[in-house]
């Protein structure tokens, strides 16, 4: 019953702000509610407060005792939804597939997957030495085991 009520309140709050979307939602056996959200333009503290209030103010603590946590996905959290890739266009990413780990700049997001580009040093076709070449790889969403944005400081 609590699960249904919280799901309804959460969906309603997310619909009010079309730029926010759900990443993870769980309720433990001791009624600890955890909501993880992301947004097309990122997530602010105010966004988390807004979602938290939309849930908390519509539940009766006399009826059920609960703890509520609303958080953003975090800068180092793996991307889980195709929608998250679009806001990270142009950023450097590490993508793990079943066969390989690729680091490159996210240059395009399609309906089926992503395109990464990077530069690599390879031996010259003729003679000694190396040459810098531009590489490009298309990766289907179904082939991505984990994808993270690489932060620069």
List the helices and strands and how they pair.
Elements (H helix, E strand, L loop, with lengths): L1 H15 L3 E8 L4 E8 L5 H12 L10 E6 L9 H5 L5 E5 L4 E9 L3 E11 L6 E11 L5 E4 L4
Parallel strand pairs: 2-3
Antiparallel strand pairs: 1-2, 4-5, 4-8, 5-6, 6-7
Q: Major β-sheet, in short? A: 5 strands, antiparallel
Question: For the terminal residues, how far apart are their CA atoms?
Answer: 46 Å
The value of Rg in angstroms is: 21 Å
Percentage of residues in helical conformation: 10-25%
What characteristic shape results from the CA principal axes? elongated
H/E element sequence: HEEHEHEEEEE
Helix-strand category: alpha+beta
Number of helices: 3
- Approximate strand percentage: 35-45%
Q: Kindly state the mean pLDDT as a whole number?
A: 91
pLDDT < 50 stretches: none
Tell me the number of strands: 8
- How do the strands of the widest beta sheet line up side by side? 7-6-5-4-8
Give your account of this protein's structure.
- The chain is an alpha+beta fold.
- It has three helices and eight strands; from the N terminus they run H-E-E-H-E-H-E-E-E-E-E.
- It has helices at 2-16, 45-56, 82-86, and strands at 20-27, 32-39, 67-72, 92-96, 101-109, 113-123, 130-140, 146-149.
- Strands 7-6-5-4-8 form a five-stranded antiparallel sheet. It has a three-stranded mixed sheet with strand order 1-2-3, with helices on one face.
- Strand 6 (113-123) and strand 7 (130-140) form a beta hairpin.
- The radius of gyration is 21 Å and the shape is elongated.
- The N and C termini lie far apart (46 Å).
């Amino acid at each position: 019953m609590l699960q249904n009520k919280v799901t309804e309140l959460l969906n309603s709050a997310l619909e009010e702000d079309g730029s926010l979307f759900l990443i993870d939602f769980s309720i433990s056996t001791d009624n600890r509610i955890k909501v993880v959200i992301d947004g097309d333009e990122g997530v602010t503290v105010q966004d988390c407060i807004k979602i938290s209030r939309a849930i908390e103010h519509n539940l009766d603590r006399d009826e059920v005792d609960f703890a509520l946590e609303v958080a953003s996905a975090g800068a180092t959290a793996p991307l889980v939804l195709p929608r998250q890739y679009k806001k990270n266009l142009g950023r450097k990413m590490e993508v793990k597939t079943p066969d390989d780990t690729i680091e490159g700049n996210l240059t395009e997001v399609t309906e089926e997957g992503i395109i990464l580009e990077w530069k690599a040093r390879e031996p010259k076709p003729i003679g000694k030495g190396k040459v810098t070449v531009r590489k490009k790889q298309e990766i289907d969403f179904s082939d991505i085991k984990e994808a993270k944005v690489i932060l620069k400081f």
